[in-house]
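Appendix B. Raw example, untouched.
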Amino acid sequence: MEERVRFTEAMEAEYLGPCPSGYPVGGFLEFAFNTLGVTDPDKVLHFFGGGVKRGITVDIRPETNPTVCCDVTKTPFEDASFDWIMADGPVSHIYNMLLYGIPANAPDEKKVLTEAKRLLRKGGMFGTLHPIVPEDVGGLVREKTYAVITEPGRMVCGWHVMRRV
């Protein structure tokens, strides 16, 4: 029988921090972990992880107290060192410039995906919550996209699941 992660509201509150996070509350984390096959949430690497209190977080903003403070396209981790990576944040350069006015030095989506591919073991899974479907990068292939309503009255985002081949 497949092992599944179960999250109560209290566990979800413990996992998500006070810093704004794009992960919706009310069951999204349980859903996301299960679509990625996560068996230990504390071993998930979170790109742009400022809104996450557990797991391994990477964020360029020191005030979010990430595990590692750096650009997610240039992490210090060894190749093939993770089974699961989640990205809550700017995975599309053009989208960020148009919607948020983030400058041209914002992370390029292909560089983010290339770093995820480098860090994932073969068969490892990458999930990102974003309104734009990411392009396949050689060796990291999108398997499925799910529609997710982030909050009532807000836009629908995609939960994009990709596998390292």
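End of appendix B.
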